[in-house]
Amino acid sequence: MMNEFIRIILYLGAVQGLLLAVFLFSIRTNKISNRLLGLLTMCWGIVLLTFALIDKGLYEKFPHLLFTVDQLIFLFFPLLYLQVKYLLERHTKFNLYDLFHFSPFVISIALNMDFFLMTGQEKLEMIQNSTRYFDVLEMVSNEVIAVQGVVYSILAIRLIRSYQKKIKEFESTLDKSIIKVLYIGISLILFSWTIGIVGLNLEYLNVNVGFDYFVYTYLILVVVIYIISYAAVKSPEIFKLDIDTIRDHSLSFKTLISKSKDIKKDAPQSSLPLEDHQQVSEDPVLINLNERLVDYMKNEKPYLNPELSLPELADAMEMSRNQLSALINQLHQKNFYEFVNEYRVDEVKQLMTAPENKHLKLISLAYDAGFNSKASFYRIFKQITKMTPTEYLSTL
Domains plus CATH for the chain? Predict the structure, then answer.
């Protein structure tokens, strides 16, 4: 019998999941990813409610629910992975190729079709006197779901890491709460799911550990998935990467020169080969563009805007995104994130030396220079100066 306290938590989680699904479907930003997350919370709410009611005689009263709700678990991790994918990448509509991720769900329904077509009484008798076919099918299904949890969690984490790396070419601030919540949440899901798999296989080996691992795994998943959902509800539209444009796309020296006056706005390009860098740095057209960029950064100080992005700066400079990115990557040997934050660090240094700022705290100076959090300020300042802000201040 399930602990009554745990049952109440599962009840609350189920209700919360269904309510969150409604909210997520109504959000106008990140539409595809939030609707996928809405489907996920709805499925999970149904599974939790069913799981909580099993030992209350649910299947005896409604035998046609046998194995039906269980199929929804096949949707859980593909939906989680696709939610991350569509949150981070630029898509105007759902890609039909992604339906392939739901093939285990479809296959499982097909393999269980004989059972689904039975009468309610026949289903109850089948459960009491299960055939070898359904025993093996249940075991294989559990293992497939277990593998799904690990594989899709790892894929989602890799997507997030790749995004965090590539976004430095586009944005000057990386403190996106939804990204942090996703990374921590999915990492926790992977950890708890792994524990659940261990418990499942110990059960197959008839090793009695005294409690159900998956009860605690489900509880952790309840907490994590709803934290992610709340973060999604509160999160604004984030910068989405155009993966098809970025991936495996290099910019040659001649292309950079020929497009220096007129280039379509698009994603930034990767670095030039080392042998071409000297030629690029000596090109008079690019030197002129770079002078414009440096003058604009020094005189207009766009970096004081904590949310400054590559597209925004490119528009202000009347350059294309490719041009601006190429200038920063090739002539300054930095990505956009590093380029902008060096100006912010220099601004903080200047503010430190001003007598009128002596009464201000360092974090106030950091905010005035364009940083948006204490943690990012201290981390970036030390990366650039090799000293903490306090250590640097003591040297003045």
Answer: 4-234 (1.20.1070), 249-395 (1.10.10.60)
Confidence of residue 252 (pLDDT cuts 50, 70, 90): very low
pLDDT at 152 over 90: yes
Residue indicated by tokens 């006197």: 129
Candidates 378, 24, 375; CA nearest to 177 is 375
Q: Is 176 left (phi over 0), alpha (psi -120 to 50) or beta?
A: beta
Secondary structure (DSSP) of 270-306: BPPPHHHHHHHHH-HHHHHHHHHHHHHHHHH-GGGST
Radius of gyration of the chain (CA): 27
Give the residue among 51, 108, 53, 97 at the shortest CA–CA distance from 75: 108
Report CA-CA distances (Å) from 365 to 303, 344, 383, 384, 387: 14, 10, 18, 17, 16
Query: What does the alpha-carbon distance between residue 121 and residue 126 come to, in Å, rounded to a whole number?
Result: 9
Q: How many CB atoms neighbour CB 100 within 10 A? A: 9
Residue 296 pLDDT more than 50? Answer: yes
Between CA 147 and CA 141 the distance in angstroms is: 10
Q: Residue 60's closest CA among 127, 115, 140, 9?
A: 127
Q: How far apart are CA 249 and CA 262, in angstroms?
A: 19
CA distance 201 to 371: 49
289, two tokens: 């563009």
